Amino acid sequence: MQAELADKPNVIDPIALRGAFGTFVTGVTVITTRDAEGRPRGMTANSFTSVSLDPPLLLVCVGKSAASSPAFQASGHFAVNLLRAEQTHVSNLFASKSGDKFASVSHDTVHTGAPVLADCLTWFDCTVHDRVDAGDHMVLIGRVQAFGTSPSAPLGFCRGRYAEVKDPLPPGWLASHGMAAGYLVEAQGSVLLVKDGARGWVLPSAPRRLANGRLPISGGDELELLPDDTFLYSVFDIDGSDSGYLIYRARLAQPRAGDELPNLPHGFQFFPLDQLPYDDIASVEMRSMLRRYVRESSLGRFGIYMDSHDGGRVAMVSAAQPWARHP
Ligand SMILES: Cc1cc2nc3c(=O)[nH]c(=O)nc-3n(C[C@H](O)[C@H](O)[C@H](O)COP(=O)(O)O)c2cc1C
Known about the structure:
By secondary structure, the chain is mostly beta strands. It has two domains: 9-164, Electron Transport, Fmn-binding Protein, Chain A (Pnp Oxidase, Chain A, Roll); 174-306, Nucleoside Triphosphate Pyrophosphohydrolase (Alpha-Beta Complex). 13% of the residues lie in helices and 37% in strands. The protein has helices at 14-21, 69-74, 88-94, 173-176, 284-299; strands at 26-27, 29-34, 40-45, 49-52, 57-63, 77-82, 107-109, 115-117, 122-134, 137-149, 155-158, 161-164, 179-187, 190-196, 200-202, 205-206, 214-216, 222-224, 231-237, 244-251, 268-272, 305-306. The strands form five sheets. Strands 13, 14, 15, 16, 19, 20, 21 and 22 form an eight-stranded mixed β-sheet that branches. The protein is elongated, with a radius of gyration of 22 Å. Bound molecules: flavin mononucleotide (FMN). Flavin mononucleotide binds next to strand 3 and strand 5.
């Protein structure tokens, strides 16, 4: 084992120290705030640590040389957005010196006014509890005012490289939490529904979030979805049903605009958004979710709804305030 010894602290080699710090496996976050003009500012940070449950506190360390550091020094609020495994491009963007990091990333405000990234793994919306000067960084301690989380795989980081977490959700987690994944698959202004013999039309479902973007339909066939265009849309329980639902909104990879919709097996059908068979939709929860989808689709702004009947694991995402899609 290689050892670095020093009788005076300044003999420690910073490059070697950075390498040693880097052996600690972390997730990846994007921390966000607003500058004095109200513009969103943000940077990638893996120095996130949970601190306290009562009061609810967390911390991140902000480098003093970062361009967004003055905004984090001055603002009374900030958000920490934990990234999903598929979001390395978001991490790279927010670790860059790009002039407008928010132009291509959907975000909105939830509680404090800090930008919250849509469809990340977990977010914490905080007011500033304290700032501690610490060498070339500032330790920013936040008091959590609102948060939301999803059962997606986290993005990991170790030794300067992105890493995958093996088994991010233990096998059967969704089923053991009574959850099924449903897919709101849109193609050419139509939504795919499946005839459920007993209850009417339902959304196609899968036992878990699809890692490969292939949605199984009957007879061993699969529909290919656009992997970068799949977003968590709704989390809810259905009254009188054992399972809760995670609904993802997704788009069909084929056909492209102007093509025919694909042939589907018996019981599967694309319905134009203005001709959805609401009276035959299997549950009142799904019916109202589809109505919201049609409404938001016409506005081009989608929200995320999370019901918290399961004991508050999902705390809050504003249902009233849809995510802004920028640009
Ligand atoms: C995975 C990863 C983790 C990082 N963690 C931190 C961190 O915790 N604190 C920090 O100040 N910079 C961190 N950085 C570096 C900043 O993201 C980077 O300096 C960025 O350019 C700052 O943006 P800005 O100058 O526009 O504010 C990290 C970068 C990466 C790729």
